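User: I'm new to structure prediction. If I give you an amino acid sequence, what do you actually give back? Let's try with this one:
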Amino acid sequence: MRDTLSTRCPFLTGEQLAQFETYYAMLVAWNARMNLTAITAPEEVAEKHFADSLLPLAHIPEGARCIDVGTGAGFPGVPILIARPDVKAVLLDSLNKRLTFLQAVLAELGLQARAKLVHARAEDGGRMDALRGGFDVALTRAVAPAAVALEWTIPFLKVGGASLLYKGAKAEEELSDAQHALSVLHARAELVHYDAPWGARYVIAAQKLEKTPKEYPRKAGTAAKKPL
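Assistant: Good question. You get back a string of structure tokens that encode the predicted 3D arrangement of the chain. For your 228 residues, that looks like this:
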């Protein structure tokens, strides 16, 4: 695992690689008793979870405050926290058992000072005064189609902030389908391609241009059933 990750991400230090090794060991151990990931082989985790999470680091400003919406087993938020000591992050998920795992991971890796766990659905979190409009970057990976993920993430951002949506081969189609959502949410987006050895990888990088209308996000479940 370490050799694969160091090859894919040569910028990582020895200490950071050791943190990823610990994260991997905990992921596999906890996965035996709860469903965290279908990918468990060390080389695959190194590429498809860890290195993949780090692809858009250049889009995360120095000292950014980030929110990982639907963090699951901690991707991409925890790898970014490991690789970027300047970043602080909120890891938000609707399942408490995942947050229990992440609490243990953050403690073991010494990341608690820069991370906060929030148990909430994205739509509910986006209406919380403590979270709405407070972040430089929002992150979503393998969560929902772009039009839906934008409604879930844009409300968390400061004006000028960026929502980074991790996508695969259908990214261009998703971006096309999300044009109305971008208009309604006062954002604009570009498609960034990464030549990853493990497959076609893209990030839809959407910048928030104006304050989000107060009616968004809509109540829980609406965006998925009726995308903008």
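You can read the tokens as a compact description of the fold. Here is one thing that stands out. The chain has a mean pLDDT of 97.
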